[in-house]
Amino acid sequence: MAIAASLIALALIPPVAAWLESGLVSHLFGQYPLLLGGGALIGSAAARRHPCGWSAAPALLAGLLALAFWLIPRWIDAALADTAANTAKVISLVLLAGLPLGWGWQQAGGVLRGFVWANVASMLAVMGWLQLSVPSRLCNSYLQSEQAVYGRLLVAAALLMVVGAGAMALLGFRMGQKPKDGQGPAPPKHRLDRQG
After folding, report:
1. pLDDT tens digits for the chain (196 residues)?
2. pTM of the full structure
3. How far is residue 35 CA from its own chain's centroid?
4. CA dihedral in degrees (127, 13, 18, 80; nearest 10)?
5. Which residues of 164-193 are buried (b: 16+ CB within 10 A; e: fewer)?
6. Residue 57: which of 137, 11, 13, 114 has the closest Cα?
7. Of 53, 126, 144, 158, whose Cβ has the fewest other Cβ atoms within 10 Å?
């Protein structure tokens, strides 16, 4: 809980928050992850104390929808221009996005995690493509050059997620393979002693 509180506090300290919100990349790749991470740690800890497996999918869906809302350019601009909207953004990212994502991920099985992972990767790729293909600014508060950098980073993040998932799947496949004859682990020592 202390780490979660530290992440949230770091994102909201006035000088740090002002610096993070001054750029599109630092805002969405800096402040957003801090708020989401703080909420996710709280949700994950709560799920370990009070497991409820059936709630994993609804929690993940709710968290992704809340996050997607605050990735809409109109609401990014609104959070920068209006104190009430910015407060709503902070509360939503911590309690309505981060917390349910941490809660759901902690209790989700491999299939559900893979499904969510694939959907997030595809969402990032589409968002990045939109940021790069639209000739005008989507966020009026930021420069178009920042939008281009943001789009490239989104596409790169999507590719990293795909590569990471492939590497983990390959590693899991290799670890799951049965050892060949003569290459398996030696029997425990106490068994050898009994046989002798």
Report:
1. 899 999 999 999 999 999 999 999 999 999 999 999 999 999 999 999 999 889 999 999 999 999 999 999 999 999 999 999 999 999 999 999 999 999 999 999 999 999 999 999 999 999 999 999 998 999 999 999 999 999 999 999 999 999 998 888 888 766 665 555 555 555 555 554 555 4
2. 0.84
3. 11
4. 60
5. eeeeeeeeeeeeeeeeeeeeeeeeeeeeee
6. 114
7. 53
Which residue, chain included where needed, has tokens 């920042």? 146
Q: Which amino acid is at 188?
A: P
Structure tokens given for 182 = 């003569």
- Domain residues of the chain, as ranges? 2-177
